[in-house]
Amino acid sequence: MPTKVQNTPALTDEVPLTVDHLLRLRASQIPDTPVLAYSHNGRDYPQYTAPQLNAFAYRAGKHYKNSITQRSSSETPEKVVALLGVSNFDYAISELALAKLGMTVLLLSPRISDEAHRHLLKKTGCSDIIVQPAFEKTINRVRSGYEGALNVVVMASRGQYGPEAATEEEKGLAPEDMRLDTQLDMEVEKSRNVFIIHSSGSTGWPKPVGKCYDTLSPSSY
After folding, report:
1. Integer angstrom CA distances of residue 218 from 10, 19, 20, 25, 195
2. Whole-angstrom Cα distance, residue 54 to residue 206?
């Protein structure tokens, strides 16, 4: 049986194995240090700490867990979930939330054609897609011509993962306990694809390119 990584207090020299592991480590190691600044109104740039992002991703992950089936163990194949929308704060939190769920995230460009979207979904074996409301018409067209089943989920917004969405259950959790993939073995998961990007498709169909945890530098996050 694979050895599970226990939810123990983070050590400063602990090597992160996955994106979510890294987020939980940073939330424990540097709780007061801002790691992200984002403008929601085009003027002000509020700063967010790792514990805040960890909590946001945890709540969004629990929200998505109600609509998207998780893998039961690391012995099962990667589960690809697509994101369709523009890069904003909700999008970034959704990426972290899916990492918490042990999903592989297919980052779909909103600029490619409906046919290209269908090609990438089929090529990556993706049957779940999280969509921003502004792209509802796009995904309806894509789904209407798609051969397989496609589970469409509306992207979580701040009201579903922000401070106002905090629950009593969270009060007893340390940052390293905000994990939603305890059924998975992180030693195995570190070699899985965390993101799938794709080429533009200017000379044919866009080509998916997987990025595994091993190839990502902790300094990227």
Report:
1. 15, 8, 11, 11, 15
2. 33
Q: By the 8 A CB rule, do 161 and 45 touch?
A: no
What 3-state class would DSSP assign to 129?
strand
Would you state the structure tokens that stand for residue 197, as one six-digit string?
């990007």
Please say whether the dihedral angle defined by the alpha carbons of residues 62, 67, 71 and 72, taken in this order, is positive or negative.
positive
Retrieve residue 74's tokens.
């690391």
For residue 98 the two structure tokens come to 């899916």
What is the spatial distance between Cα 185 and Cα 189, in angstroms, rounded to a whole number?
6
The type of residue at 177 is: D
Q: With respect to residue 77, please indicate whether it lies within any of the assigned structural domains.
A: yes
Rounded to whole angstroms, the Cα distance separating 174 from 194 reads: 24
Give tens-digit pLDDT for 67-112. 999 999 999 999 999 999 999 999 999 999 999 999 999 999 999 9
CA distances from 89 to 120, 157, 159, 184 (A): 24, 9, 12, 27
pTM of the model: 0.90
Tokens of 15: 């090597």
DSSP element (H, E) containing 209? strand 208-212
Question: Does 80 reside within a domain?
Answer: yes
Q: Write down the residue that tokens 């400063």 correspond to.
A: 12
> Alpha-carbon Rg of the chain, whole angstroms?
17
| CATH number of the CATH domain containing 108 | 3.40.50.12780
